[in-house]
Amino acid sequence: MSYTDGPRGVGGWLAFFLVTLGLFGPALEILNTVVQLTNPDIARAYGTRWPSVRIAALVLSGTSILISWFVVGRFLLVRNWRTVRMGIAGLWLQCLINVLVAPLAIAILGGISVQTLFAAMAPSLIRPIAYGTIWTAYLLRSKRVANTYLYPDSRDEAELARVFD
Fold this sequence. Notes:
Elements: H1 12-37, H2 40-46, H3 50-77, H4 81-110, H5 114-141, H6 143-148, H7 157-163
């Protein structure tokens, strides 16, 4: 569904979303990963399991960053409703990685109790869920998004008729 009036294009809150997803999110991910991987206390705590934990952390962080960049690139380059659906799926895939996959992988590879790790990480698990929820609601309800990334059925009849000429 598109609106006949209202904002179009990448601007306003949509631009803010893309900046947070494509720049601030990856920068924060890199910073957190570097801080954790260069902390000698963490390395000592994992002992001989540290190399496996470090590789898992790098792979999971890299995957999360690549998902962010893919979604932002898609929003900037492809203007159809499938982009919005892929963006929402990307947000929730990142959430799944950050809230479930990463803690489980670190717990299993590091030999830590899953309950202990989740209890220690509880506050940091809320941010990805809140981010995904807020931006999913925005992407589904925004007039700017609806006007910029058109639904397949929103083309006018003349444009559709040209397909059959």
